[in-house]
Amino acid sequence: MLNDVFVYPTLGSKWHAETHKSEDLGYLVEVDADDAAALFKHVKRHKLRAKLALRMLDEGELDVWNAWRDDERWTAHSQGANEDGTISLTDCRAPGMGQRILLPSSSSGSGVVGNTAALEGLEEAPLSAYTIRRYLRGVAEGQKEIPREETLPMNANIDLMKGIDFKKGCYIGQELTIRTHHTGVVRRRILPISLYNPATGPPEKLEYDNSLALPSPERDTEIRKDDKRKRPTGKFIASIGNIGLGMCRLEQMTDLVVSGEPSPYTPEDKFTVQVAEENLGLKAFVPDWIRGQIRGPKIQKRVE
User: Fold this and answer.
1) Distance from C-alpha of 144 to C-alpha of 32, rounded to nearest angstrom
2) What was the pLDDT predicted at 23?
3) Rounded Cα–Cα distance for residues 42 and 172 (Å)
4) 92 vs 38, 70, 137, 187, 273, CA distance in Å?
């Protein structure tokens, strides 16, 4: 992967009318700010002679908001301009991720709630609340969690998020991607993880506990099975308090079966990750939206 992005159709929005003053199609690409310049350069290089105008938005021109309601019905469909002229889409990466809304920077601050119908009646929350919500659902984003040119899309669950077009023509990595898709064997995936004090034992369910002041390991610290061999079973990605993400070997850290090989996992298995000179306990969880899309191994039939 190069970048994970959201693409917003803008035709019909107030922003499009004010900046383009035409009925030509337009799209906004939201990307990690740390890598926006690199993506712009990459797209511009491949523009060639296409009748396409590209520009980077000015800093502060539009702010990205995420809005969610716990009783909201989830849909995998997205949209472009709303009736009130704002630009938004449904974050369909996982259930409960809400809507992403682009608003002028003048809308930010204490008066943002109520400026658009999508935000009406909602209280402004810190960025950490959105991040914890992502972690609980196993959704990674940005260069720190999905490093450029290091992560394969299926390992980051992009296939389960419907972010890969398996009918598309040639692209770099197509052979590996389509072969993995048809065999159904993806051994490593990003999953939600819970950190805990080894003295207290692993948690029974995945939930954020703001009373636990746990240190965060370094990115790519190895997750190891807590036994005599201390075998690596994955890598730590990020965390806030006791909740985070890890790149996990599915058949070693969960009850999922993705190949025809015997699974070494048992519910009694424990795992650890090192922080400074100490070890923290770590447990991986499989969200329902991921579990429901993992196919079982294909059994090869022999011809007698």
Assistant:
1) 9
2) 86
3) 14
4) 25, 15, 12, 24, 31
State the pTM of this model. 0.90
Token duo for residue 281: 């306990």
Tell me how far apart the alpha carbons of residues 281 and 203 are, in angstroms, rounded to a whole number.
10
What's the one-letter identity of residue 43?
V
Per-residue pLDDT tens over the stretch 195-249: 999 988 899 999 999 988 899 999 999 999 999 999 999 999 999 999 999 999 9
* Residue 289, token pair as written in the block: 């939206």
Q: What is d(CA 283, CA 193) in angstroms, rounded to the nearest whole number?
A: 5
The pLDDT score that the predictor gives to residue 59 is 86
What is the rounded distance in angstroms from the CA atom of residue 90 to the CA atom of residue 96?
10
Which residue has 């259930």 as its token pair? 95
| Dist. CA 151–CA 4, nearest whole Å | 11
Nearest 10 degrees: Cα torsion 149, 152, 157, 163:
70
HSE-CB of 193 using CA atoms within 13 angstroms: 32
* 78-114 per-position pLDDT tens digit: 666 676 788 999 999 999 999 999 998 765 444 444 4
Structural domains of the chain in order of their starting residue, each with its CATH number: 6-124 (no CATH), 185-291 (2.40.30.110)
Separation CA 83–CA 241 (nearest Å): 39
Give the separation between CA 68 and CA 53, rounded to whole angstroms.
Answer: 33
